[in-house]
C-alpha cells in the first residue's frame, strides 16, 4: 500500500513537471561563470564586416525609370531602413552606388567621377537591363553604354526592366553576404582592369538634312496654285517667278 502511494505521488509530480514545461517551455536564464557564455569570441574580420554590412549607405543616383523603383523602396511600404541603409546625397558619405537607369556616353564621365569620390571600401549594384547590357538601346542607340561594368566594377547584377523593390532587397541581401565573406588581407589584391572600353566606329559623316533654308524659302509661304485660284487669293511674286521658270524650261 505504501508503494502504491509513492508511485501515485511520483506520477503526480511528473505530470506537474510536464505541465509546467508545456506552459513555460523556456527556462529562466541563470548566471553562469563559463567563459563561452560571458565573452563574445570573434575575429576582427567578422566584426569589421558585420559593421559594414549593417550600415550600407547608398548614393542618391538615378538616370532613368529604374530609379522610380529604387525611390519606392525608400518609402514606408518596403522600408529599406531596416537593413541599415541610409540614402546619402554626398559621395563622401556613401559606400554603395546603385546605377538605376540607362548610362549614356555623356553621363559616363560623371558616373566615374562619382565612383572615384566615394571612399573605400565601396560597392556597386547594376540595376536594370539598360545598365547591365544596354537593354532596348543595344541595337540602334549610338550613345548608350553597353554595360556599366565597362566603366566601374560591379559587385551584384540586378536584371529586370525595371526590377521590383523586392528584387532590390534581394540584391542587397546578396551584397551583404558578399561583404560578410570578405577578408581585410585579400581586399588589396582585388583590382580592376580594363575600365574603359571603346571600339572604332565606321560611321560616315553626311551633310545635315535640316539646314533651315527650307523655312526661309519664299515658295514655302505661297499656297498651291489651285488653292489660290479657288479662293481668289493674290498670286505672290515668288510663285509667278517659279511659274515663269517652269514655262521657260518647257
Structure description:
- With 250 residues, this protein is α/β, with parallel strands linked by helices.
- It has a domain at 56-189: Rossmann fold, CATH 3.40.50.
- The protein has 9 helices and 4 strands; from the N terminus they run ααβαβαβαβαααα.
- Strands 1-2-3-4 form a 4-stranded parallel β-sheet.
- Helix 3 crosses helix 6 (165-180).
- The longest helix is centred in the first third of the chain and has 22 residues, at 2-23.
- The protein starts with a helix and ends with a helix.
In DSSP terms (H or I, runs of 4 or more residues), the helix count works out at 9
CATH topology of the domain at 56-189: Rossmann fold
Helical content class: 25-40%
Q: Beta-strand percentage? A: 5-15%
Under the CATH scheme, the architecture of the domain at 56-189 is 3-Layer(aba) Sandwich
Number of strands: 4
The major β-sheet equals:
4 strands, parallel
Tell me, rounded to a whole number, the average pLDDT.
Answer: 76
Task: Give the low-pLDDT segments.
Answer: none
What is the radius of gyration? Answer: 36 Å
Q: Please tell me what the overall shape is.
A: elongated
Q: Numbering strands along the chain, what is their spatial order in the largest sheet? A: 1-2-3-4
* Helix-strand string: HHEHEHEHEHHHH
